[in-house]
Write a structure and sequence with these properties.
- GO terms for molecular function: glyoxalase III activity; peptidase activity; transferase activity.
- This is Intracellular protease/amidase.
- It comes from Sphingomonas carotinifaciens.
- Residues 100-153 form the DJ-1/PfpI domain.
- This protein is α/β, with parallel strands linked by helices.
- It contains eleven helices and eleven strands.
- The chain has helices at residues 30-42, 73-85, 87-90, 95-101, 116-119, 125-136, 158-166, 170-176, 192-203, 211-218, 248-263, and strands at 5-9, 15-17, 23-25, 46-51, 93-94, 106-111, 141-144, 186-187, 221-222, 233-236, 239-242.
- It has a seven-stranded mixed β-sheet with strand order 5-4-1-6-7-11-10, with helices on both faces. Strands 2-3 form a two-stranded antiparallel sheet.
Length: 264
């Protein structure tokens, strides 16, 4: 018997803009999607995947590597097979249909990382509606790597907030974030120093803003590790955030612990 349904908010973004013009190809990270999802299934929970337009998320090719699975070929293959063929990864709903169908039946929500959420989820109205529900109901809300930036979708005008970040308008961003529901929450996210490495080695260009700045501008109390790509998970009330791809299992463990505790 299932312990309950966990909603997974995926992204449909495949490109992200860079300073000076041009774009980089992005997507969700394979391990950040599959590791927590499989852990939830193994723990007895069901998962429902939803994206802004209802299409299956794109996996960033850079993430399709055994290195993100500690060199474990078996775990790597299981993740690839899971994303390719498991019904939960292919019976995708739109965020709008999930909102219209009602959110009370979900026991928790999870947002995977990769750069993709920075493009769509962080300014998606339906994503904001969903996250506000889980905040108000104090249900476990877990976000990984770049996924934590999705929490700014709960702002009254998230697109304007994102635009202010792109333009370097710190005062404007802060003004738009007044009264944010997560203001004062402790959280973590893909660090500015980790982003520099990603920009140089993967994106081949500079983003308009880093994730630490985005969340601090909104009012989050952001902390990251001194060592790049070291696992780090921060829990504050219902909010569970993981810093980077290496935090996938630790974040999954924290989410499952919170779900089990809520059920008890």
């Amino acid at each position: 018997m299932s312990k309950g349904q966990v909603l997974v908010l995926g992204s449909n973004a495949t490109q992200i803009g860079l300073r000076g013009g041009g774009t980089a190809t992005v997507g969700q990270y394979l391990n950040e999607t599959a590791v927590p999802a499989l852990a939830l299934l193994d723990a007895g929970y069901d998962i429902v995947l939803a994206t802004p337009n209802g299409a299956k998320p794109h996996i960033d090719a850079v993430s399709v590597s055994v290195d993100h699975f500690g060199g474990d070929e078996t775990a790597f293959q299981r993740a690839k097979d899971f994303f390719a063929s498991h019904p939960a990864m292919n019976d995708v709903r739109s965020l709008r249909s999930v909102v219209e169908g009602g959110l009370d039946g979900f026991v928790g929500v999870f947002v995977p990382g990769g750069h993709a959420p920075v493009v769509d989820l962080m300014q998606d109205h339906d994503a904001g509606t969903i996250l506000r529900h889980f905040h108000t109901a104090a249900k476990p809300t877990a976000l990984l790597c770049h996924g934590p930036v999705a929490v700014v979708a709960t702002l009254d005008d998230a697109p304007a907030f994102r635009k202010a970040l792109e333009e370097g308008d710190d005062a404007g961003a802060a003004d738009l974030a007044r009264g944010w529901i997560y203001s004062g929450y402790r959280m973590t996210v893909f660090s500015a120093s980790e982003e520099k490495i990603a920009e140089e080695q993967v994106l081949k260009g500079e983003l308009f803003f880093d994730m630490e700045k985005a969340l601090r501008s909104a009012g989050g109390v952001v902390s990251v590790t001194d060592k790049n790509f070291a696992s780090n998970v921060v829990v504050d009330r219902e909010l569970i955030t993981g810093q980077n791809p290496a935090s996938d299992q630790a974040m999954a463990d924290a989410l499952i612990e919170a779900l089990d505790r809520a059920a008890a």
